Queue: 3 jobs
Job 1
Amino acid sequence: MNTNIEYLGLKLKSPLIAGSCGLTANTDNLCRLEEAGAGAVVLKSIFEEQIIYDIKRNTHVYAPVGNYGDSYEYIAQHVADDSVSKHFALIREAKKRLSIPVIGSINCFSYENWLTYARQFQDAGCDALELNMAIMPFETSLSTDDVERTFSNIIQSLKKSIDIPISIKVGHYFTDLAKFMQQLSWTGIQGITMFNKSLQIDVDIEELKLCNADSLTYPGELYNTLRWTAILSKKLRCDLCATTGVTDGNDVVKLLLAGATAVQVASCLYRNGLDYMKTLNSQLQQWMERKGYESIDQFKGKLSMRPNDKASMLMRTQFMNYFAEIK
Ligand SMILES: Cc1cc2nc3c(=O)[nH]c(=O)nc-3n(C[C@H](O)[C@H](O)[C@H](O)COP(=O)(O)O)c2cc1C
């Protein structure tokens, strides 16, 4: 039996990928994940805000008060280069020490920086890029068209400027999620990663202020990922990498049955440690053995919708089954 798959045109020994998070920001962790059977790793994202923060912090110390002028520009560029070069050192070291694919991750907000970092990540040796495009429709002035155009513009430009495979990591917040994911898959990208986790906001009722909610996902979040994986996997012209809500090997099996090409995990590694990757892999293999499957291809997408199926009918039937108990 083997668990080999092809994802973004790369050969992986397992469909299990360590998703981008704090755990994938140092090479010792990455090596442990490889030893525990990860098929690939997605490095912690480089955030444009983080670079800008570094620039502000450092220029505050060095810049002449009130008159930054050319020296400010010089220092700002130097700090940006320094932040970015730390990230490139991670990529280069990871490439040196790992034999599994290393996927870089970028999260920017300005058009130019998507392009700049993508080129630099490619030059630093990443096997593929995951673009964490967390463009949220927060502004009342922002229309669906505006959001979707931003995605298209960035992707089109990136396709022209880099050669390594690209996956787009998206959130749920699209008016026309199914249609737009299909359109994205037609742009020549190699994969879509569904879904990103947006930071949740909570309220501190003692201090009367906003605060961050727990950043780890909880098991029930799997069902949304499962639904959209089943609906979209056979309608996309690229790979679909499922993420959010995986807690054990059975969840991995479910997502593969729903048609995911690969599955990313983060929260369960925080909760159970990096070696949990080994447990997830062996639970997947035990299930395959129990069911008599020799390879992932034999069962991948068995429970996904077919390209011409109407998702609305399927969901309606499930709804009726549940509430009216008709079978
Ligand atoms: C602490 C933490 C940090 C994360 N940092 C990033 C990040 O830098 N870039 C990114 O694309 N996703 C990031 N994520 C999201 C994960 O990659 C993943 O998509 C999400 O947590 C859902 O998977 P899970 O249910 O297995 O946690 C982070 C998640 C956690 C829990």
Note: The longest helix spans residues 69-97.
Job 2
Amino acid sequence: MSQLAERYGPWAVITGASAGIGAEFARRVAERGINVVLVARRRNRLEALASTIEDMYRVDVRVAPADLSARNIVEVLRPALAEIEIGLLINCAGFGSSGPFLDMDPSVQESMLNLNCRAPMLLTHEIVQGMRERGRGGVIVVSSVNAFSSARGMTNYNATKSYDLLFAEGLAEELRPYGVDVQALCPGGTTTEFQQVAGLDPRKFGPLRRWVFSSPASVVATSLRALGGRVTVVPGFLNKLMVFAIRLLPRRIATRFLGLLMDRLSAGY
Ligand SMILES: NC(=O)c1ccc[n+]([C@@H]2O[C@H](COP(=O)([O-])OP(=O)(O)OC[C@H]3O[C@@H](n4cnc5c(N)ncnc54)[C@H](OP(=O)(O)O)[C@@H]3O)[C@@H](O)[C@H]2O)c1
């Protein structure tokens, strides 16, 4: 049995498992002998990943296609979570959008709030009760380096990621006495479908792109290595440097500086 399985238990729930960082979490957790519940909307992607994981790692997989921004999300997911001991919850599903806030569709912004903030909060409340009773467990909330400052053009997204950061940091304090490890994972630019969904164009970084962007594999490896140690995890040297600089700067200046960066990255809003 792997250290991770021994420490946290037999099952993990991973949201956003149909792509990017979430799919990589699913593979790396399964590789360590932990059974997985895969949650996202695209059933075909989840089923394809489930069959790869079952074949490669010989673990049990449950596929739970669901829209996590739905109001009744906990009731929808309850059957997929029943009668298993969940020792690891990875709240990874999320999306961003770029552009002037007042020009955006408010219903899309509302579903971002529901997906990025409400769903991890409710799923944590539902699933972590069992971890607290058993005296062991792990929770990862995927936030972002964007959590450390606002930026024009990503006003609502950055606010949702700040929520995730503060939620995880507070929860870590509350759950430490019960043996439950909580991590706020704050990746910087990572090569996934995120940029396309958010209307950002990483090619605008030119040759700097390969220094600025990380792979999902390196983000997930850093996260799993750090779980149970540091609470706030910022993968990558450049990202750590940026977060350090943001913390030193007056907030108004940091917000303006990041706004300039967003102008550069935007695919043309
Ligand atoms: N990539 C980056 O540069 C970066 C940087 C910092 C933080 N992050 C954070 O990392 C997390 C994962 O993003 P990613 O980079 O892996 O992006 P991604 O490749 O676009 O994956 C997003 C995942 O979220 C799921 N999702 C989106 N809307 C959903 C909904 N309404 N209900 C259920 N699932 C939904 C998607 O699945 P379906 O479409 O199948 O539902 C997909 O599995 C996000 O929280 C993001 O904020 C990303």
Note: The chain has one domain: 3-265.
Job 3
Amino acid sequence: MSMATFDCLAFDADDTLWHSEDGFHATEMAFYELLAPFAPTGIDIKAALTATERANLHTYGYGVKAFGLSMVEAAITISQGQVSTDVLAQLIHLTRDLLLAPVRLLDGVPEVLQELAQHHRLILITKGDLVHQTRKVTSSGLDHLFDHVEIVLEKDVATYTKVFRDISVQPERVCMVGNSVKSDILPILELGGHAVHIPYQFLWELEKAEHPPVSQRFGELKSINELPEWIHGIVSQTGKA
Ligand SMILES: [Mg+2]
């Protein structure tokens, strides 16, 4: 049996294993339409909503509930208090719908995870609302493939350091896979680990970041289906296969 280069493959969840941002995107489109009749001319509704989300981030954290509260707040601000209770009720319903939406896995995810789990320890690291993220993990059908699941408040160097220390893994022996360069890639590279970026069709404004150059420790793939081959390539190059 070959010795793996990585002690642990860590996966992001939202927009890496299953769809998430497309739901936010569709809800935002509905928000713009609902607010348009109440918005003074020349107001950039999208920019106003993003500014509200950014201002609330430290208070509400990440996730659908935070997004819902920011939509309601932005609706009241943008309309200068004129938005109807009917529209506010619709925003609350849209938020609830997002929270209750069934998990939709991305193409190839179960097959690739099953393959990788044969020779690697898989862990899941996701940020956001504890209730919502927990339900998605447990209803995804992927739960059993992960040796460890961590739901965190923030994905930064300090958080990853603590997560890896808690499970006794050296960051240098981790490969993290995710759709956000800011949250899933840069902190891991800073800690000396490997990272693989797989983009999703939508990226939240507050997750945007410049991509580092591709290297021995950082790969850019189009789909998770390319992941086993990439990992195999790294293992071969380091001569530990
Ligand atoms: Mg993600």
Note: The beta strands are 8-11, 122-127, 148-152, 174-178, 194-197, 218-220.
